[in-house]
Amino acid sequence: SVSGIRSRYLEIHTMNLDVTQTITKDDLLQDPCPYFWIKDALPWSLYDQLVAEYPEQHMMQDGKTHFQARRYRQHEFQPGTITPLWQDFVDYHNSREYKDRVLDLFAPAIERYYPAYQSAWKIADVVPRHQGPGTKQPDAIALEVQFVLNGQQETTVRTTHLDNSRELFAGLLYMRRPEDTSTGGDIQVFRKTVERPEFSGIREVRPDHVAVAGAVPYRANHMILFLNTQDTLHGVTPRIGANCVRRYINIDAHQSHKLFRL
User: Fold this and answer.
1) Which contiguous run of DSSP H or E holds residue 227?
2) Which helix H or strand E contains 58, and what residues bound it?
3) pTM reported for the whole predicted model
């Protein structure tokens, strides 16, 4: 019934939507780069409802399963496509409250990598990514939540690389389907094995200049959250035996200037 659906929504809505609610600064990993491996990021009843309402059907209208990535970005959201619960999730992770929370969690690493920007980021306003940061708000931090699908082919969707140097932080919350029986699709973090690794393409690092240092497995309700630095080298392992697409939520923050150069 409508009343039953509404009651369920209100019950779920009283839960904490923050994907960082189960971690503290003590959980920060700093070798070889600053990141959190967040297990059971959301309360399971909330997570299960978000999984059930994931807009995969909207993103897969052509039925094709072999593609690298499909991203449903906020400025593309169509009225009624994402549910009220998802909209609340998006709104929170676009908020200054969330920005401040993440910067506080990464405070020790920011002090190490970006001490000159620490105070400015703390007081910065937030804007939707497709609206900035730009000339009107050059000091603002731009936030975005994306729905992302990866195809079923048994190749990596991204080799070892660095993200855009204007990205401040990013988080990938895995929304693995219950019937997914594949292996792989994990995020690996890498350590440099030479002082100045060589790069090519879209910030892709030469494979023999890095070594695997850790991984966050592609498991339901798990998340990697990282501070973007010149050391934050990461990639995705091939996914074997895929019987459905790989799903996750990307939550990122960008600012107006480059934080490092290759």
Assistant:
1) strand 223-227
2) helix 56-59
3) 0.92
Report residue 134's pLDDT band, with 50, 70 and 90 as the boundaries. low
d(CA 239, CA 185): 5
Give the chain's length: 262
CA dist 224 and 95 (Å) reads 20
Token pair in block for residue 166:
């204007």
Those residues whose C-beta lies under 8 Å from the C-beta of residue 236, and which sit 6 or more positions away, are 150, 156, 157, 158, 185, 186, 187, 188
Cβ-based neighbour number of residue 217 at 10 Å: 17
Asked whether the beta carbons of 226 and 37 are under 8 A apart, the reply is no
DSSP 32: S
| Nearest residue to 208 via CA among 197, 220, 222 | 197
Give yes or no for residue 179 having a pLDDT over 70: yes
User: Strand, helix or coil at 238?
Assistant: coil
Name the β-bridge partners of 148: 71, 248
Q: What is the reported pLDDT for 7?
A: 58
Kindly report, residue by residue over 8-48, the tens digit of the pLDDT: 666 666 679 999 999 999 999 999 999 999 999 999 999 99
* 32 and 231 Cβ atoms separated by less than 8 Å: yes
- Predicted confidence at residue 173, as pLDDT, reads 98
Tokens representing residue 195 in the block: 């002082």
Detail the DSSP E strand segments found in the chain. 35-38, 69-72, 126-128, 141-150, 167-174, 183-184, 187-192, 199-200, 204-205, 210-216, 223-227, 233-236, 239-240, 246-254
